[in-house]
Design a protein that fits this description.
31% helix; 8 helices; Arylamine N-acetyltransferase fold
Length: 279
């Protein structure tokens, strides 16, 4: 079982066994809905959103599959959206799924419908239906795929729906107890790995990037979700309004490991501590 040798998603180069071990997925895999759902849930349970490289003085966040696997699979780190999509796309390609990538305009924090389309997710075609497969939006994101159709809905502990706007954009909404939160709007215009490089450069270097000047960590698990932006920690539990509190400097420095399961090298902990302390 392998992706086509010339596939742009590099399925033939992914270490599938190592990935499945990393996310704790123990079932057989096949290009079917059960596998798609199972991998989605296992991935978001195991792998946090992590922008720490941008704060640690890294001059680049490489998106080649070898680098992404080294960081997320072998080192046990998280990754930001583009890294996780590269990894997930290679895994799905290796298994034999048919899919394309698209970009979405995030609304959850900015509220803007016309901001840059920085978030990337996958549209999987399976048995005549399309599925939105998005493992990298973080604490507010999907816990399993949702059918990509107007009026589609996911119920359960973490409910979501999809609505269609007059512009033709789909909007993914997280149905919180305090009211729906629009996560991002998107069309399914196809994006390619070469597009990822441009988005990656913006996220790492642009002065208006939300990811290169403060710590952003997110983790989605079965019964609790955590989001850390700067020193503000938000906790979300099923059926309850979100709660937030400010962390002190020591708590913020220990949060990557203690809350988000990210183990850093000692030198990176020291660098992060200096970054959080500011000038």
């Amino acid at each position: 079982m392998s992706g086509a040798p010339d596939s742009m998603w590099q399925g033939s180069g992914v270490d599938l066994d190592a990935y499945l071990t990393r996310v704790g997925y123990q079932e057989d895999v096949a290009p079917d809905l059960a596998t798609l759902r199972g991998l989605h849930t296992a991935h978001v349970d195991a792998i946090p959103f992590d922008n720490l490289d941008a704060l640690l003085g890294r001059t680049a966040v490489p998106l080649d599959l070898d680098s992404v696997q080294e960081k997320i699979v072998r080192q046990g780190r998280g990754g930001w959206c583009l890294e996780q999509v590269v990894l997930m796309a290679a895994v799905l390609d290796r298994i034999g799924f048919t899919f394309t990538a698209f970009a979405g305009r995030t609304r959850i924090r900015s509220g803007s419908k016309v901001g840059p389309a920085l978030h990337v997710a996958l549209c999987v075609e399976l048995d005549g239906e399309r599925w939105l497969h998005d493992v990298s939006f973080g604490a507010n994101g999907l816990h399993e795929p949702i059918r990509l159709a107007e009026g589609a809905r996911l119920d359960g502990d973490w409910p979501f729906d999809l609505v269609r706007e007059p512009t033709g954009e789909h909007v993914l909404r997280f149905l919180r107890p305090e009211g729906p939160a629009e996560l991002y709007g998107f069309t399914t215009d196809v994006r390619y790995p070469s597009d990822f490089e441009l988005l990656n450069h913006f996220c790492l270097t642009h002065p208006r990037s939300p990811f290169n000047h403060r710590m952003i960590l997110q983790r989605t698990r079965a019964k609790v979700r955590h989001l850390l932006v700067g020193t503000a920690l938000t906790e979300i539990r099923p059926g309850e309004p979100a709660t937030s509190r400010e962390l002190d400097a020591a708590e913020a420095l220990s949060a990557p490991e203690e809350i988000f399961g990210i183990t850093l090298e000692p030198r990176d902990v020291r660098t992060l501590g200096k970054t959080l302390a500011g000038p």
